[in-house]
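[INFO] parsing input record for Inositol-1-monophosphatase
[DEBUG] input buffer:
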Amino acid sequence: MQDFKVDFYHALETATSAAKEAASILNIYAQDHSKLSISYKSRNDLVSQADKDSEQAILQVVRERTPEIAIVAEESGTSANLDESQYTWFIDPLDGTTNFLHGIPHYAVSIGLVARAGTVLIPNTPPLEVNTPILGVVYDPNRQEMFSAIYQDGCFLNGQRIYTSQAKHLEDALLATGVPFRDFSFEAPYMRGFKEVMHHTRGIRRLGSAALDLAWVACGRFDGYWEMGLAPYDVCAGTILVREAGGTVSDIYEKEPWPQSGNIIASTKSIEEDFGNLIRQQL
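[DEBUG] output buffer:
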């Protein structure tokens, strides 16, 4: 495995530039959907030329500026150096493809960076005990909102420090979720959890972009979020955003150090226990 120290700010600049390049392509396609070719990866799992072209724009930037870092990208798959690299980019060029294709202006570019267990990120500190998201960028081109976070350095929205909400009790919380749309194997426990949340909170929103759901938890618009059956590139960047904004993110099944399998629960620390118990009791 390669042994090198990541330059956090170079990596952040790389991810930010890549996200903006991707967004410029999405903006062009958003003006005229007739230019889009659309195909199906599986039931209700769409991919368009916008996804592919925006991803290629991201890959060009990250490969040029951080060639030593491995890549896991939604449309292109995994790079050959995954097993040798201490660090891996997780790239979703268009989170919220269905919204995008229907002309709903709620989608984002999501780019996260994960460091392997054993990596020393900061001099004179212990190495990481588990694989850990250490940098994340989520860019909303419709609102021109750039969410970013670096490990132990806070979370920011367009350069201004942000924090999770001040909600103290679950009954005062507004939560976000994503209902099963592709894999219905967990439909029954999910719907049990949905019903419990519906009766014990201020409300639930389903907006169609996991990356933005997590970014909105980070900036306090939502107090919590949960979903099942996602992919690692859907949640990688959002995980570090919420954690650095003062919130918590975990695997619903409590088996992974971050929700790499796509079963995620995130919230402010004040409601973490009650929210977690409410969801996990239904699994």
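[INFO] The chain has two domains: 8-161, 170-281.
[INFO] shutting down worker
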